[in-house]
Amino acid sequence: VGDDQKQHVELTRDLAERFNSRFGETFTVPVPMIQQETARIYDLQNPTAKMSKSAESDAGVLWLLDEPSVSAKKVMRAVTDSEGSVRYDRENKP
To answer: Helices marked H in 4-89 — which ranges?
Structure first.
């Protein structure tokens, strides 16, 4: 899950634990699995901002109902840098 969805998993965990304590082991208690590198998906046009439905531009957001050709066009037009390497450095290379 994403960083902004952790609270929903925690609520589900609390409900499952409470139900299981009263009625026996019925539900699997979920554990949030958040990888720091992918905890937030960043806007394709503004890489310092989180991808959001309230983004300034629709060009920076991938929608589930976008046609594949539209999604491909958005990805191909995403803001990148001119460095010749691919590396994860959130501080110096957003």
So the answer is: 6-23, 68-76
Domains of the chain listed by start with CATH number: 1-36 (no CATH), 41-94 (1.10.240.10)
Local structure of residue 58 (DSSP, 8 states): G
pTM (2 decimals)? 0.59
Residue 58 has pLDDT above 80, yes or no: yes
Q: Which of 26, 27, 31, 52 is nearest to 40 (CA)?
A: 52
Residue 13 C-beta-side C-alpha neighbours within 13 Å: 10
Encode pLDDT of 9-47 as tens digits.
Answer: 999 999 999 999 999 999 999 988 887 777 788 899 988
